Amino acid sequence: MGKTLVIAEKPSVGRDIGRVLKCGTKIDGALEGSQYIVTWGLGHLVTLADPEHYDKKYKDWKMEDLPMLPEKMDIEVIKQTGKQYQAVKRQIYRKDVSDIVIATDAGREGELVARWILKKADNHKPCKRLWISSVTDKAIRQGFEHLKNAKEYDNLYHAAVCRAEADWLVGLNATRALTCKYNAQLSCGRVQTPTLAMIAKREEEIRKFVPKPYYGLQLQAEGVVFTWKDEKSGSYRSFQKERIANIQKKLSGKKLQIIKADTKVKKQGAPQLYDLTQLQREANQKFGFSAKETLNIMQRLYENHKVLTYPRTDSRYLTADVMGTIKERLQAINAGVYREFAAPLIRRELPKKPAFVNDAKVSDHHAIIPTEQAPNYIHMSNEERKIYDMVVRRFLAVMYPAYEYEESVLTGAVEGEHFYARGTRPLHMGWKAIYENQSEDEEEEELKRQNLPVMQKGQEFSISDIRLTEGKTKPPARFTEGTLIAAMENPVRYMESSNKEMAKTLGETGGLGTVATRADIIEKLFSGFLLEKKGEDIYTTAKARQLLELVPEDLRKPELTAEWEMKLSKIAEGKLSDRKFMNEIRTYSTDLVKQIKTAEGTFRHDNMTNKLCPNCGKRLLAVNGKNSRMLVCQDRECGYRQTIAKTTNARCPQCHKRMELIGSGENASFVCKCGYKERLSKFQERRKKEGAGVSKRDVQNYLKKQQKEAKQETGSNAMLDALKNIKL
Asked: Is residue 159 part of a domain?
């Protein structure tokens, strides 16, 4: 009997499996033991071939060559990860390897990662499937005891291939058709275009919004503020000023009678564990981190520091098998500020069926929690510590009892009008003790909480003050990266269709994009100059608004994703032919190209400058990148770019906000929105005198990051030269 080759999705998972299977010998891109060899991908090692693979003419983007509909879709090795593919292929072809275990993520994309590697390598050896939702030692051992025949997952693989090929055919054909038609780089796709449409819709709601004045009434008695409530509508406000003014008049000189005094003990459970989306959202709210930044930080904590579990998860629950490891994880964090909360849990017996454990609500990966490895804070950056702290506190919180408090509601009556006051008194802090010194955002409430004295039913009090309050209705809030991520996860409210099955499917399949891709989609919209940021708020650019006018209607709607997912689910269940689905996609791609070709719209650059491109002589466009201002050639084929200003991590000495670096060489200067200006040379001198206030490591990381970004932009090294000379 030969050895079994195990193919994992990532090196970290490969190492975990290798340890359990006693594969202690390191070989090229793999680990080897007496019975098993464990190797891995780096995510995808193989992908669909580029258009020019099928025909050299596709190197040039021409409308007459569209639609691109290869008879058979080919796959090719990704160049950047070609070395690891060759390492995996060598293991597949070893004569002492008798069979293969697919151990990639338990899901559609995980299936595709392994199957495409095996297909490209022309594997003919028998395959089995490891299907587990967590990578604890126990889960791995149990999984290997219950391996399935890989053929049982053929339909899932077919569904994955259909998703990939459909995105290729629709995305590439529509993007090329739009770009050729309007001679502007206009990218579109099944996920990014509806995401853009959601932001544009919100902007339209804000634009059309007309503030409406509203009025209320407050009175004060015995130091307590009572708020008027309309008993019919249940609202604390009215849009009729005259009505409120009349009520105010008739209450003058009257007394407030307490008609009800209710006191109830209430409980509030801890918030759920983090999935990636919720973590990205809260990190954006608390620290201003972008979705991509949070994911990158998480990835480092997972892969380099090994202190947090797999970040790309859409579940906020744990599986039952993880419960056996909880004490070890608590031991790992039982130090410093967490000791007072972790130590009691270690001594205590944990509940057998806690609310945060639910196998049915974990698909590929469980919620993000600490690992059994103790952290080394010295090697963590400030940003990494912030994210780690969020996860650890949430992990501790779910194991603590509910927050208990006493809520009192007083109802007073004057001349037939009802007034209310509410107060709370903590009884048992429970999980809230873990966040005691941290401000937790409370939702805005119309009836504010206050300290209430003891008041009995039937008591009467003189009214010391009656005040008419007023305000205006507010428009919907603009999207931030945090709220946009959440909207992508649940885009149902942006659907025009009332199809309940479609809405349900969209909800069950995780909305637009996946937890792993949403951050990249947002970054792509920024890098394509379709989005820009003003403060933390996201705005569409003129380019984006024009694109949404020019793109076929179907591509703007989340319904397209819902429809595809319904059909892909049927393919995975064996209820729909993959060939039938792909025939529909080919027809759809052809129709899209026809729609774009015959459309009557026009595209106009409204950000044209008088500066000329040094490469082709055409006028340059002024664009706002996510963290920079740039000049970009209007001719997509030229591709010239020049950074004219870049937001740095250098702080203004007056208002402490991040400053822009403008110009280059001797003329390079820092400029702040508050009006402060400082030459680069003066900045360096000042910082030298003051002392950096940051570690050498932080400085190096900062410079590396800025230089990397500068290198990515072609056409000018002026900004890079300036950055080289910065000394914090």
From this structure: no
